Automatic annotation (TrEMBL):
<feature type="domain" description="DNA/pantothenate metabolism flavoprotein C-terminal">
    <location>
        <begin position="10"/>
        <end position="228"/>
    </location>
</feature>
<dbReference type="GO" id="GO:0046872">
    <property type="term" value="F:metal ion binding"/>
</dbReference>
<keyword id="KW-0460">Magnesium</keyword>
<comment type="similarity">
    <text>In the N-terminal section; belongs to the HFCD (homo-oligomeric flavin containing Cys decarboxylase) superfamily.</text>
</comment>
<dbReference type="GO" id="GO:0010181">
    <property type="term" value="F:FMN binding"/>
</dbReference>
<dbReference type="GO" id="GO:0071513">
    <property type="term" value="C:phosphopantothenoylcysteine decarboxylase complex"/>
</dbReference>
<feature type="binding site">
    <location>
        <position position="106"/>
    </location>
    <ligand>
        <name>CTP</name>
    </ligand>
</feature>
<comment type="function">
    <text>Catalyzes two steps in the biosynthesis of coenzyme A. In the first step cysteine is conjugated to 4'-phosphopantothenate to form 4-phosphopantothenoylcysteine, in the latter compound is decarboxylated to form 4'-phosphopantotheine.</text>
</comment>
<feature type="binding site">
    <location>
        <position position="153"/>
    </location>
    <ligand>
        <name>CTP</name>
    </ligand>
</feature>
<dbReference type="GO" id="GO:0015937">
    <property type="term" value="P:coenzyme A biosynthetic process"/>
</dbReference>
<protein>
    <recommendedName>
        <fullName>Coenzyme A biosynthesis bifunctional protein CoaBC</fullName>
        <ecNumber>4.1.1.36</ecNumber>
        <ecNumber>6.3.2.5</ecNumber>
    </recommendedName>
</protein>
<keyword id="KW-0288">FMN</keyword>
<comment type="function">
    <text>Catalyzes two sequential steps in the biosynthesis of coenzyme A. In the first step cysteine is conjugated to 4'-phosphopantothenate to form 4-phosphopantothenoylcysteine. In the second step the latter compound is decarboxylated to form 4'-phosphopantotheine.</text>
</comment>
<comment type="similarity">
    <text>In the C-terminal section; belongs to the PPC synthetase family.</text>
</comment>
<comment type="pathway">
    <text>Cofactor biosynthesis; coenzyme A biosynthesis; CoA from (R)-pantothenate: step 2/5.</text>
</comment>
<dbReference type="GO" id="GO:0004633">
    <property type="term" value="F:phosphopantothenoylcysteine decarboxylase activity"/>
</dbReference>
<keyword id="KW-0210">Decarboxylase</keyword>
């Protein structure tokens, strides 16, 4: 009845999106995690679906109330970085657009204890960590020859030795993704249900889009930028 809410700008395209934050198990009841809500990734899934795409959302520990926003999207729930890598590799096989909007733990415990760890009277304890695979870099590398756009995210705060954009440029170059979404995080924006400021750059650091607003609006800005990118190829 009402078609105002939809368009077909992504009709015929498969979009694979990861959202949320990974949990790396220490023992059966404990993990190393992060405070990514998954809201941006879910907003992206919803926007891609609204534009007519076939969407796979690989959701790392995303709250069911947040996931509800992406009703109708094929959701692959995952817990750890290695789970997420497996599902994204699978989804990427048939994807035209691959977006890593998840917060992947850089390290995981070297071993997972099969039983709950107990206190043992010592005041200090060391947890050995090993590096997780760089999923985005792997996806960007593995698509060789395929006409696929790969997009990464970088949440940066900036500090005394570099601005948000400088850090983002370096990251874009390192990852080999086509586009990086630089997401400025701080006290008042970025995490949680608040407005977001993004800048979208390519590997050379050229700016292809930017905006500030709700996550839904920024999802629109990103897909507009991706469509322009595809047209320019
Ligand atoms: N990413 C990934 N695999 C990892 C770490 C990050 O695929 N093991 C992806 C994220 O999903 C994001 C992008 O890489 O799309 C940038 O993540 P970020 O944490 O900002 O970059 P890192 O390379 O981990 O650098 P650092 O945390 O040291 O800033
Ligand atoms: Ca990281």
């Amino acid at each position: 009845l009402c078609s105002l809410n939809t368009d077909d700008s992504l009709a015929g395209q498969n979009v694979a999106i990861s959202a949320g934050g990974t949990h790396e198990a220490i023992d059966p009841v404990r993990f190393i995690g992060n405070n990514s809500s998954g809201r941006f990734g879910v907003a992206l899934a919803r926007e891609a679906q609204r534009r007519g795409a076939t969407v796979t959302l690989v959701a790392a520990n995303v709250d069911t109330n947040v996931l509800k926003e992406a009703r109708g999207v094929a959701v692959k729930p995952v817990v750890s970085a290695r789970d997420l890598q497996g599902q994204m590799q699978q989804a990427a096989l048939s994807a035209d657009i691959v977006i890593m909007a998840s917060a992947v733990a850089d390290f995981r415990p070297a071993s997972e204890s099969s039983h709950k760890q107990k206190k043992d009277g010592t005041e200090k304890r060391t947890l050995e960590l090993v590096e997780n695979p760089d999923i985005l870099a792997g996806l960007a590398h593995d698509r060789s020859g395929k006409n696929q756009v790969v997009i990464g995210f970088a949440a940066e705060t900036g500090d005394e030795s570099g601005s948000v954009l400088e850090y983002g440029r370096a990251k874009a170059a390192r990852k080999g993704a086509d586009l990086m979404v630089i997401n400025e995080v701080g006290v008042t924006r970025g995490f949680g249900n608040v407005d977001t400021a993004i800048t979208i750059i390519d590997r050379a650091g050229n700016i292809h889009g930017n905006g500030q607003g709700t996550k839904a609006e920024m999802a629109g800005v990103l897909f507009d930028t991706i469509l322009q990118w595809q047209e320019s190829k």
